[in-house]
Amino acid sequence: MLAIQQLEAGYGESIILRNVTMKVKPGQVVCLLGRNGVGKTTLMKSIMGVLKARRGTVSYNQTDLTKTAPAKRAKSGIGYVPQGREIFGQLTVYENILIGLEARNQKTRDIPPEAIAKFPVLPEMYTRRGGDLSGGQQQQLAFARALASQPKLLLLDEPCEGIQPSIVDDIRDVIRSIKADGKTAILLVEQSLDFVKSVGDYFYILDKGAIAWEGGLHKLNNEIIRKYLTV
Asked: At what angle do helices 165-181 and 135-147 cross, to 10 degrees?
């Protein structure tokens, strides 16, 4: 589904990602781990095309997207929940979710029921401004906005950052539900080891801008954790 080959990207003169190669298969939850500042968010932005690749390729469903604009990547079936949520504070909850529909090839004003079924509190807040919501509520809104496009690949960048434990549990349940449905693959960046272990199928560790380790849950042992993840 998603195939990244020898990707190099950065900002200005700085190279952040070096020869990154990884895959996300249909229906998988793939977790990208690493200490702060190693390039995880840079990789997510590169996959979406927000940041242009300097070298290497990003392919989705065997189509090379390396030079494709972010909007076209979204229309190809990639949803994105960025770090910090980036919801529109002056728009209502309903209007924020409608923006997610722009990534669908079919023009419609009908929000798919599955986009909000996982967050039943949101319809009760449709007329509230996004900026008036709590951090956890905004995260649910960003999630629902991405799901409104009915993506086949969902990129989640730190979805549990700075939100209360009850909503973290809700997000875990949503990811498990998507995984069980088998229609949408997920690439997840998350700091909490307990969280990723509870949802992940396969793991990559990024260190100094390069993939330093990869493997299944049974191989993610204490030695690997101490070497690459412990602060």
From this structure: 10
Q: What is the chain's percent helix, strand, coil content, to nearest 5?
A: 35, 25, 35
Residue 144: closest CA among 108, 111, 189: 111
User: For tokens 């997840």, what's the residue?
Assistant: 188
Q: How far is CA 184 from the centre of its chain?
A: 12
**Per-residue tokens: 172:** 């875990």
Number of other residues whose CB lies within 10 A of the CB of residue 222: 8
Give the Cα separation of 10 and 191 in Å (integer): 22
Whole-number pLDDT of residue 60: 96
Alpha carbon distances (Å) from 173 to 11, 85, 148? 35, 19, 18
Cα(120)–Cα(173) distance, integer angstroms? 13
Q: Bridge-partner residues for 9, per DSSP?
A: 17
Q: At what angle are helices 135-147 and 93-100 packed, to 10 degrees?
A: 30
Angstrom distance (rounded) from CA 77 to CA 217: 27
Residue 105: the pLDDT is: 64
pLDDT, residue 100, reads 87
pLDDT for 221 equals: 95
Strand-pairing partners, residue 17, are 9
Cβ neighbours, 10 Å, residue 131: 11
* Mean pLDDT per 10-residue interval, the chain, length 231 residues: 97 94 96 96 96 96 95 94 89 93 74 87 94 92 92 95 90 94 95 95 97 96 95 76
